[in-house]
Amino acid sequence: MAEAYYMQLTRQLREQLRYGGATWVDEVGRLPAERVLAERFNTTRVTLRQALAQLEGEGKIHRSNRRGWFVSPKRLEYDPTRDAGFNDYVTAQGRTPRTEVLGVTTATCPAAASALGLDVNHPLYHIRRRRYVDERAVLVESLWVVPEQAPGLLQERFDHSLWGLLRERWQLELSHRSIRMVSEALQQDDASELGVATGTAGLNISRTIFDTRHRPIEYDEEHWLHDALSIRVELSNTT
Amino acid sequence: MAEAYYMQLTRQLREQLRYGGATWVDEVGRLPAERVLAERFNTTRVTLRQALAQLEGEGKIHRSNRRGWFVSPKRLEYDPTRDAGFNDYVTAQGRTPRTEVLGVTTATCPAAASALGLDVNHPLYHIRRRRYVDERAVLVESLWVVPEQAPGLLQERFDHSLWGLLRERWQLELSHRSIRMVSEALQQDDASELGVATGTAGLNISRTIFDTRHRPIEYDEEHWLHDALSIRVELSNTT
DNA sequence: CAGTGGTCTAGACCACCCA
DNA sequence: GGGTGGTCTAGACCACTGT
Q1: Mutate which of A58, A178, A234, A235 to disrupt the B interface (most B C-beta within 10 Å)?
Q2: Coiled-coil ranges per the record (chains A, B) (predicted)?
Q3: Of A73, A139, A171, B167, which has the most beta carbons under 10 Å away?
Q4: Would you say the C-beta of A157 is within 7 Å of strand D?
Q5: What is this structure's pTM?
């Protein structure tokens, strides 16, 4: 086969997005309707959508559920090993952060409890947040904190760094951390909170945190849009 | 809408894969042909393929180009901050590693050179390898080594740890490392070397390595199948 | 209500893999 | 050469978003 037409389409669209200014992209980065693009490139919606899906996989464009396709902004650089707050590192990159607290409860979570080495029925503080970069929702996260380590935590506000709070108010020293990163397809709840279709490619980042005395402190799970971040870790010691 | 049919399909297939032993999966983990599955679930290939694509995004199944769909094996746990060799950590997890050297040359690479802080035309040793876990090709990688730091390197064999080689033969101490991880769509060359379709979801892991005197040593870029690995980093010092 | 993406049909032909 | 996935057509209806 010479080359699948949808791959040629992909290349054309990609190049027009990068150079050319792509006159057909409007001022907020929105692409024309699929039907319009399909007609312009003399093909059907199915084939056009294959090309769009390719670019989506590359992180060049993304879709907002039933609203249309948009050019994806530059990826955020993120170092999950540092405890700089989200607000800090987003601002440091010249972007605008925002955090929404979706829920604050006490509940049990077998996955979190077992990661922390506790009984699966051990109650935990649960905080759920949604975070934005330049008003685009890029991640939802669930934080599970061991109540004994930070009594009264749920009275606090959670629109800033949780780790900063734990350090200042409860003098907790976050020492050992175990971090796990795995690609995923966003499940229904996470996807709808991010305004994307179920199954959209995502990245799951989970941390388990212990203090200097190896007591379990916190477990958290972040679900990112895959095209929103680039992970960067700097290490200096030899292992 | 109640629920899209392909999502119901996805759920059924997922559950049958997890429990039930899925009698329709053969002994090597291969699924029946798309046409057969489509007929069995009373739908068309297009809709069935949507369901398969969902499971592919979840890392449950994968396809080998034009050969069929297969159940994905367990993800490999991988810590990119350690310099344990591929052979070592794959074996430690009870799996069987294999490395194929695809090419050994001297060439220029602007991306590698600039990451190392060298002139873009600075020649570098280039080693390209393909690596397998249990005979499944899971990644291709390009290694770019600064020739001045390891003269004669290209005479060596590269089916084992490069870092081990640099340490033993040239007494190089790998100190500072900058690691970057980003989701990607596998490009034509990488995809075909892995036997998958262009655009298949992948994970790109790049490292830039300096020695204790901050001299650039090596830059490498790994392209993994997204469902083949789970990244895990353990940290003990506070930052 | 108009426009958008999301889903789905019922076919077709082609390129590649393997026996 | 038979079977597989890969690509593509030309439609259709639906659900949701925004005005």
Answers
A1: A235
A2: none
A3: A139
A4: no
A5: 0.93
